Amino acid sequence: MRSTTAVVLARRPQGTKVAEALELGTIDLPELTPGTALVRNQYMSVDPSTRGRMDPGEKQYTTNFEIGGPLDGSAIGIVEESASDQLPVGATVRHRMGWREYAVVDDSASTVCDLGKAPATSWLSSMGQTGFTAYAGLLPVGALAAGETVFVTGAGGAVGSMAGQFARLLGASKVVGSAGGAEKCAWLVDECGFDEAIDYRTADVRASLVAAFPEGIDLFFDNVGGWQMVHALHAMRIHGRISMCGAVSNFGTADQPSLAELIEVVLRRVTIRGFIVRDFEALRPEFEARVSAWLASGELVDRATIVQGIENAGAGLEGLLNGANLGKALIRLS
Ligand SMILES: NC(=O)c1ccc[n+]([C@@H]2O[C@H](COP(=O)([O-])OP(=O)(O)OC[C@H]3O[C@@H](n4cnc5c(N)ncnc54)[C@H](OP(=O)(O)O)[C@@H]3O)[C@@H](O)[C@H]2O)c1
Question: How confident is the model at residue 59 (pLDDT cuts 50, 70, 90)?
């Protein structure tokens, strides 16, 4: 029986203090059976949903972690031994058995990544669930049309930086993002091609949005929720749409607005649609073809903030929840 080092949930965390709730442990690896392969993980994705899964309440769209058990999540690695024709030794594969150094993966839940189309890190970022979330939230969910105006919260992060850039590449007439701090805001405008960026920590967000969108926001892509969502409601165009992707402010912010603020949805006849990316799997080939072309042409900036070592994985997740990442947050395994 083989074993591997994994990140284990030692106790339930409070707020964004997740590093102290995680410990390194050793878990057994199953023997290879037909259709499986042994993968040495290279990069692991760091996602806000991992924090949600550390709570006891069932989240409906996924399973929660048990105390004493390993975490999991998207990862990419190299096949070292294989009992599957679809996962040859040496192939780079993406799978869901991250937060551990080695994993035995099933070919039905793994994707072989073509490194000719995009580098390994991009298969967890622009070409991965991150980019696909942005794509699904803009097109099938948000029904973005060329010439429309778009506002993105959490724009300096993984999904947000993709959502804003995809919107521009899909013909939006104006793209504005909000992010925490001057460095992220400068990156959005100078490198990612956003028309404007609002530092939500220092700016009057509502006034900035009303000034940036004199005719209103057609499509609001919300990663953050809370007060920024309310501020954006006051800048929506009549019959505007909100693509509700997530509410990362729920984890660290006690000051949340009242539901009474939603009266603005009535006054502006706004449509709000929440979504979970896995409902749009049929669009995956179209998405990969478009994004790999944008990467090849240099029109898309795909940046990652990489933390080194599984022993720093908890700190990497805590950093993400506190805004330490510019673009996609990843852990690199040695
Ligand atoms: N619906 C789906 O299927 C789906 C799939 C994947 C992800 N998501 C959601 O998409 C959102 C973005 O995920 P991601 O992986 O791209 O993470 P991310 O944006 O790369 O990282 C989270 C960012 O949230 C910001 N943040 C933290 N607390 C905040 C607060 N109180 N107010 C405003 N901003 C805050 C931080 O940036 P600042 O420095 O700007 O504060 C941080 O960098 C999350 O809500 C996630 O749950 C949804």
Answer: low
Q: Which of 211, 253, 205, 252 is closest to 230 using CA atoms?
A: 205
pLDDT digits (tens, 9 = 90+) for 268-285: 999 999 999 999 999 999
Residue of the CA atom closest to atom 9 of ligand 1: 246
Measuring from each residue's beta carbon to the nearest atom of ligand 1, which residues come in under 6 Å?
47-49, 130, 133, 154, 156-160, 179-181, 184, 223-224, 245-249, 252-253, 275-277, 320-321, 323, 325, 329
Determine the 3-state secondary structure of 107 from DSSP. helix
292-299 own/partner pairs: CB under 8 Å, 24+ apart: 292/117, 292/118, 292/127, 294/126, 294/169, 295/117, 295/118, 295/122, 295/126, 295/127, 296/117, 299/169
Residue 103 bridge partners (DSSP): 39
Measured over all CA atoms, what is the biggest interatomic distance in the chain, rounded to whole angstroms? 65
Going by their DSSP bridges, the two strands 102-106 and 36-45 should be labelled as antiparallel
323, 180 in Cβ contact below 8 A?
yes
Ligand 1: residue whose CA is nearest its atom 43 = 323
The pTM assigned to this predicted structure is 0.96
CA of 30 to the centre of ligand 1 (A): 34
Please tell me whether residue 227 adopts helix, strand or coil conformation: helix
Of the three residues 278, 293, 312, the one that is the final residue of a domain is 278
Among 278, 295, 324, identify where a domain stops.
278
248, 272, 278, 328: residue to mutate for ligand 1 pocket, most atoms within 8 A of CB = 248
Residue ranges making up the domain that contains 18? 2-125+303-332
Looking at residue 100, its pLDDT comes to 98
Instruction: Please give the number of the atom of ligand 1 that sits closest to the Cα of 249.
Output: 31
Nearest by Cα to 169 from 140, 201, 199, 134: 134
Domain tally for the chain?
2
Give the distance (Å) from ligand 1 centre to CA of residue 26: 30
Candidates 322, 291, 284, 320; CA nearest to 304 is 320
Helix/strand/coil percent split, the chain, to 5? 35, 30, 40
Taking the CA of residue 49 as reference, the ligand 1 atom at the shortest distance is: 47
